[in-house]
Amino acid sequence: MSQTFEDLGFSKVDIDREVRTGFPEIIYGEGKTKEHILKIMNKLIDAHGKALATRVSEEKASFILANCPNAHYDPVSRILTYGKALKRYKGKVLVLCAGTSDLPVAEEAVQTAIWLGCETDKIYDVGVAGIDRLLAFRKEIVKASVLIVVAGMEGALASVVAGMVKRPVIAVPTSVGYGAHLEGLTTFLSMLTSCASGLSVVNIDNGFGAAYQAASILKLVTEEGSE
Description:
- The protein is α/β, with parallel strands linked by helices.
- The protein contains 9 helices and 11 strands.
- The protein has helices at residues 17-21, 34-48, 58-67, 103-116, 131-135, 138-143, 156-162, 185-192, 207-225; strands at residues 6-7, 12-13, 27-28, 51-54, 72-74, 79-82, 92-97, 119-123, 146-151, 169-173, 199-201.
- A 5-stranded parallel beta sheet has the order 8-7-9-10-11, with helices on both faces.
- Helix 2 crosses helix 3 (58-67) and helix 4 (103-116) packs parallel to helix 9 (207-225).
- The longest helix has 19 residues, at 207-225.
- It is globular, with a radius of gyration of 18 Å.
- InterPro entries: P2CMN_synthase_LarB (IPR039476), PurE_dom (IPR000031).
- It comes from Scopulibacillus cellulosilyticus.
C-alpha cells in the first residue's frame, strides 16, 4: 500500500484526502507557526498544485508570501490561497450577511467557496432590522442554488431567507452581539431552533465549514448531472 500522507514530524499531511473526499486537506492556520504553515502548504502544492489556509494573521501571511510569492492573501477573511480550482461546478453559491460586522466570516465563506470551484456571489448588510434591504434582492436570492446566511445578534436573517427559497440554506452564527448574545451561542441556538424547514447550521463563525458544505452539494449535483 502506497503512503497516503507526508510525515513532517510536527504534522502528517494528508495528501490522499482529495481522492477520498473530493477536496484536498485545508490548513487551519490559527495556532500554527508561520514556518509550519509554509511547510504544510508546500507539501500540498507539490501534491495538488493548490493549497488553502484559513485564519492566517497578517504577520504570518507576510512571511509566507515572501517565501511563496504566487500565493494570495485576503486580509478580511484571513484566507491564504495558492492556485485555484480547475473546474467550476453547476449552480451558484450566494452568501448573505446581516451586517458589516459579519463581513470577516462572510468573506471566509466567499473565498473558500470560490477556491473550491463554486461560482459565488454575495449580498451584504441585509439584516432584518431593515427588511426592505433584503427584499430588494429577492430575484437574486431565489435564483441561487445554495445559500449561506451569516448573521449575529438573534440570527433571524437565516429563518427569513429559508422561508423565501426552495434551495438548501446553510446558516452561520457569528460572535457579533451584546452581552446576552454570549459570543454567538444565542445566535447558534436561535438558528438551531428555527421554524424554517430544511435550515442547516454550522458552528459559530465557521464560514469555511458552510462553504465546504455548499461546494459538496454543488459537486454532487454536477457529478449526478454528468452521468
